Amino acid sequence: MDTLLKIVQVGFYITAASIGILTYLKAKNGLLNTVNTEYQKKVIDRLAELSTELLDEFDSSSDNYWLRENSVKEILDRIHEEIIPHKNEIISGARSLHGIPVSKKEQKLQAFLSKVMSDPFIPSDIRSKILDLVEGRLNAMRSAHHIEIEKYQEGLKSGMYWDTLDGNDGWLHNKISRRLYKSGYGISDVESQVHKIRTDIQLYFEGFNPIKKSNKYLY
Fold first, then answer.
1. What is the pLDDT of residues 9-63, one digit of tens each?
2. What distance in Å separates the CA atoms of residue 185 and residue 181, rounded to the nearest whole number?
3. Dihedral sign, CA of 39, 45, 47, 50?
4. Which of 6, 153, 176, 215 has its CA at 20 to 30 Å from residue 183's CA atom?
């Protein structure tokens, strides 16, 4: 009788322990599924927002549409404001020019780069493509601005361009634009890369589409 009682007790303990473990695992998996679902929701929301941010520059109805920006004019206006009162000293060499101002566009791109760089809700492969695009674009822009605007400043020192200050941004913009296209970062080049990244975002979304998933097994 004692042996039978012990067997029953052992069986009871084993059953109770098994139920406890299964209950714990179920609760743990439920919690993990909840956390994972919430994380994926945040990822999807962030990617939807990011897709809009990327296209904003190429949306003609947007305040940030690229044709509404003129970084070259902005930079030259700041340079001209500083040098006009000192024209004679600059031409004679008695006064030097003080570097090249950073445009608002450059500042925007740098801020966007910093925001994307450590964003935990952007999948790593998509983030990597965005970083490559923005870093490459910034480097190309800085190089083109430095080369062409420095040449322009040298011309000012030698007495050139002073009679057409208000219109110099036009031809200088074209020279900078040509440099950007040569480096692969002209405005249409950038737009093309943006559309490719937005397509990657679309494919990421389609990975959560149960209808699309089930359809692929029908072929």
1. 555 545 545 555 545 445 444 444 565 778 888 999 999 999 999 999 999 999 9
2. 5
3. negative
4. 153
Give the span between the Cα atoms of 108 and 113, in whole angstroms. 9
pLDDT at 3 over 70: no
DSSP 103: P
Alpha helices in the chain (DSSP H): 2-56, 71-83, 87-92, 104-117, 124-157, 168-182, 187-206, 210-215
Distance CA 75, CA 175 (A): 15
Q: Is the pTM of this model over 0.85?
A: no
Question: 156-169, pLDDT tens digit by residue?
Answer: 999 999 999 999 99
Neighbours of 12 (CB within 10 A): 10
Q: Could you count the other beta carbons within 10 Å of the beta carbon of residue 21? A: 10
Token duo for residue 86: 């000192």
C-alpha atoms less than 13 angstroms from C-alpha of 102 in its C-beta half-sphere = 7
Q: What is the pLDDT of residue 170?
A: 96
